[in-house]
Amino acid sequence: MSEFATKLTRIRHLLAYLLKFIGVIKILTNKKVIIFAEAIFEDAELLYPKYRLIEEGAKVIVAGTGEKTYKGKYGYPIEVDGNIKDYKAKDFDAVIVPGGYAPDRLRAYKEVLNFVKEMNNSKKIVAAVCHGAWVLASAGILKGRKATCVDRIKDDIINAGAQYFDKEVVVDNNIITSRKPNDLPAFCREIIRALAK
Predict the structure, then answer these.
(1) DSSP-based three-state secondary structure for 41
(2) Of the listed 31, 50, 107, 131, which one is catalytic?
(3) Residues 8-30 pLDDT 10s
């Protein structure tokens, strides 16, 4: 990207944020995001992105693997909008995989892995936080990519071919990853920035 184009993009983003700040526009209107849910999800890692993206005007769908309701690690229930197998990657601009114990269950479903692969192949945003990176590894999309995750699974991410960084958020083109709940402000900021382009 040329220096002029980079400056123009920055100005456009600044203007959008200023207009959003004074309540004139929501910067993610017409964007559609799907968040995956399964039992024992990390409560904050599902709920924070959901409400933050809704606040910016995005249409957010929470999809599970068959149950109507899932409980988070700390007991917070989430009612899903539907089953992952009933949604198509072509209809979404981003997919978010929260952490907790849910990703270990999610990666056992071929529909989940195929959805993530399709999103990545279409250069759409694939975002994962904490243990959510397991799903990206199982989908086979981390080879040669930069990523982060909770430190307990960094060996898994490295073995999947990723270059691991211990940072609050790592952006590698369409893949956005973070380590833990404390990183959620940076994680959501980068998802919003990528969707607003």
Answers:
(1) strand
(2) 131
(3) 777 777 776 666 665 556 789 89
Task: Find, among 66, 162, 177, 178, the residue nearest to 111 by Cα.
Answer: 66
For residues 107 and 75, what is the distance between their CA atoms, to the nearest angstrom? 22
Active site residue 131: yes
Question: Could you list the residue range(s) of the whole structural domain that residue 98 is in?
Answer: 31-196
User: Could you identify the residue written with the tokens 């973070």?
Assistant: 178
Cα–Cα distances in angstroms (integers) from residue 15 to residues 2, 18, 21, 56, in the given order: 20, 5, 10, 15
Structure tokens at 103: 């990703």
Whether residues 21 and 44 share a domain: the answer is: no
Locate 118 and state its tokens: 């399709």
Buried residues in 138-158 as b, exposed as e (16+ CB within 10 A) = bbebbeebbbbbbeebbebbe
Amino acid, res. 144: G
Q: Are residues 9 and 47 in the same domain?
A: no
Cβ–Cβ under 8 Å, residues 129 and 97: yes
Rounded Cα–Cα distance for residues 61 and 72 (Å): 17
pLDDT grade for 1, boundaries at 50, 70 and 90: low
